[in-house]
Design goal:
The protein is α/β, with parallel strands linked by helices. Helices cover 46% and strands 8% of the residues. The chain is built from twelve helices and five strands. Strands 3-2-1-4-5 form a five-stranded parallel β-sheet. The two termini are 41 Å apart. The N terminus is likely disordered.
């Protein structure tokens, strides 16, 4: 059995780093000795595993299909050859959107890669809504994928969400989380700012809201809502989805703020 497996995480990391540093000191030997090169690759991969947090490992596996899809598109467009020439010419590997070949940016919610792949005329969320098991898995992922990461309110100046009305009127809406799932983000916000006034409203599809009828016991009131329709609630909108400007921005009035959280 490999002796490294019996070491503590800290000792394993130190040993791996020493192995890698030792190999880097003699780069010519790496090229000349295939065994050393393979051993170094094994050590480097073990080092990644030793340093990764469990949630980071999950993300790495979870996003791998997206990377594979991007690579397949790049191969089909011969982008690797184009990028190589651009780099040789000291030009950035960027271009005019839609200027390569037949590939185009999707501009229609009902006509994009998802509809093509699953042979459906439904939006992604409509499709999920018709499949409770997959919707449940999606909601669990959305609730857990931000673990170990900073929340949006740790980077955004939260004081901008406040207003004289919210400070004095407990019925005023402070935050509407569009596509807010089961309220995990607003629950974290309320725990971080228990003194804040104003109503916190998560909005999501009916089946998602119905999974947690107690609204996480956090003084929140959930609203069943499809974000492809006009916004029914006026307040600061917080969203981790792509909103339709014609539908949602037009709903903002007064001092409301539209905050897009890019996940």
């Amino acid at each position: 059995m490999d002796s490294v497996a019996n070491l503590s995480r800290e000792d394993e990391t130190k040993n791996l780093l020493n192995s890698i540093h030792g190999a880097i000191d003699d780069p010519d030997a790496i090229n000349e000795d295939p065994h050393m090169r393979k051993s170094l690759l094994v050590a480097a991969r073990r080092l990644v595993t030793a340093l990764e947090k469990p949630v980071e490992t999950i993300f790495r596996f979870g996003w791998q299909p997206h990377q594979n899809a991007a690579i397949r598109v790049a191969i089909a467009l011969d982008l690797f050859a184009v990028t190589r020439h651009l780099i040789l010419l000291a030009l950035p590997p960027t271009g005019i959107p839609g200027s390569y070949t037949q590939y185009q940016n999707p501009e229609d919610l009902l006509n994009g890669p998802f509809q093509f792949a699953f042979d459906t005329d439904r939006t992604f969320f409509q499709w999920l809504d018709e499949r409770p098991d997959r919707m449940k898995n999606f909601n669990t992922w959305m609730e857990g994928h931000r673990q170990g990461r900073k929340s949006w309110f740790q980077s955004f100046p939260v004081e901008r969400l406040d207003s004289p009305r919210i400070s004095t009127d407990t019925e005023a809406v402070m935050i509407v989380d569009v596509g807010g799932g089961q309220g995990h983000e607003l629950e974290a916000f309320r725990n971080a700012f228990p003194e804040s006034n104003g109503r916190l409203i998560p909005q999501d599809l009916p089946k998602t809201i119905d999974e947690h009828p107690d609204h996480r016991k956090c003084l929140m009131e959930a609203i069943k809502y499809d974000f492809c329709t006009p916004q029914p609630t006026i307040g600061n909108l917080c969203s981790d989805t792509t909103l339709d400007p014609a539908t949602d921005v037009a709903s903002l009035r007064g001092s409301s703020i539209l905050l897009s959280v890019d996940i």
